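Worked example 2:
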Amino acid sequence: MPSPTREKSSHPDSGAQELRTTRLWESIPGLSYGGDYNPEQWSKDIHVEDIELMQQAGVNALSVGIFSWSWLEPFEGQYDFDWLDEIMDNLASAGIKVALATATAAPPAWLVHKHPEILPVTAEGIVLGPGSRRHYSPSSSVYRRYAAGITRTLAERYKDHPALALWHVDNELGCHVSEFHGPEDTAAFRAWLGRRYGTIEALNAAWGTAFWSQRYGSFEEVRTPGPAPSTLNPTQQLDFARFSSWALIDFYSMLVSVIREVTPDIPATTNFMATSATKALDYFNWAKHMDVVANDHYLVAADPERHIELAFSADLTRGIASGKPWMLMEHSTSAVNWQPRNTPKLPGEMQRNSLAHVSRGADAVMFFQWRQSRAGSEKFHSAMVPHGGTNTRIWREVVDLGAALQAMSPVQGSLVESRTAIIFDYESWWASELDSHPSADVKYLDLLRAFHRALFLRGITADFVHPSANLDGYDLILACTLYSVNDADAANIAAAATRGATVLVTYFSGIVDENDAVRLGGYPGAFRDLLGINVEEFHPLPEGGAASVDAGWSGRIWSEHVHLAGAEALASFTEYPLEGVPALTRNATGAGSAWYLATFPDAEALDGIVETLLEESGVAAPAVAASGVELTRRRAADGTGYLFAVNHGTSDAAVAASGRDLISGTPFAGVLAAGAVAVIAEA
């Protein structure tokens, strides 16, 4: 029986990708600065003013034409490029480079009217209509034909334009709707399954269809997962999540193949939504198809620790980009339009946000959008030029940020330093949160965010990496809630410990294989030997319940019956029926160690565990600073270190560092003002 393989769309070889990426960064010296530009919303006199203001702000890069299909092709086969020609020419004359969009993120009304079959269908059979955006299925043969047509027309027209630096393919693929259940989607799912498994017998084995008489006689009998009398086959759900991510990759790759035929040397990307809230797309798989990784990020205004969530998302984006520089394609100057209460950013917060992204690997700082719209759903979404014009705090901060980014040009191309890795796997996220599990309270991101927060507060930068990534160079590795893992990836993590790393594995890790089949012989199956333990039974805690631990702390959400099989117990549960059962263990293995955590510790205990792990692994912050200061370091190819210090507090803070502050242009004096940022070229 053939083993299933991970579906991959064709993509350019890495050498060609590297050349295109190099060309992109060479075309925009220094850090890129700008945003989405939607000139079709404005008159020509505003266009002239825009160029003047862009130069005042230091803008050198813009995304253009993202939602302009109905203006470029107002009627089928009838094109109007005069306005875009003028815009492209004006931007080129001003020295501003363009990420030109394929304009496919919102089908025009005439196309929907002629071909309503392109519209997405939900699992309940509801057709999602126009009047918004993203109203198409990526598997629609009709839509793919029309999308390829407008993309080719744009590529042919602007292939030699001096402003063109990057193709912005579609926009936020998977946003609003990420799963599709129409007839062509079902057919595409069946074809994908056929390629993945080869035979229906292999699918039946992987899906465990002996349960509940679910055995299939052919791929034609398989449907997309939808409403059913009870819970659905978990592996069917998992495979549909894999397929749904792939279907959007395949649509992206189709558009890129058109672009490649016309402009083989121009790099291409699309803007991810790699945040702690975006679950549907496997961005580690997507990254293989990008010439440069680009991401959108928006703060949750109500979150008092929103700067820590920003760091989480930026670190995740850098991990997806394999540590290479990436683009912040969208964020906001102030309030957004889609949260329940759209409060503005505080004075100076926009610069702190922007430079925090740069500190974590971004070589481009872009906003949605350049000029705040007068009409439409996003008219109250902040922009670089707000409704109030240039006599506003936002505009003054936009100009100041442009000057800071220009002063920070030497940072471009440098890489973020990190000796700590947090394992991140979208497929494990999907699988761990399927139904019929031991506890509804186990959420994939909760432990990851808790450990990342504890590291952040100590000035420790962590890379989020796929479990298959090269783990050499990491001294501390955290595998949290890695519920689903294949043999090779489990061995990769174990090898890191043998090499000398300190590895921590948490509860509900290594439980199933890549097909969501339980690994028999005791939990956590994939990591039993590494950890020197065997878990007999899960004891999930009741809602709001706690499990006391003899080290003076308590756990929540989870506990379990752990047996030692070579490891030593560092802390144990104290209450019936788990009295004396290990809650935290350590196993020496090779030159390193493997720790196991059998509950979700309270905040103080988790901090203490992190402190102990840091001491054992030898990982330390890049500098000593007062509480409230965010620290990261980027290092250039010539060895120069750039220490970023961001003071999120309301008081001046000491930072033990020396060198020239690129932003002020003066030697760093060792004290960072409240709310300020320093980028120190270390002596």
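Residues 410 and 483 are 42 Å apart (CA to CA). Confidence is low (pLDDT under 50) at residues 1-11.
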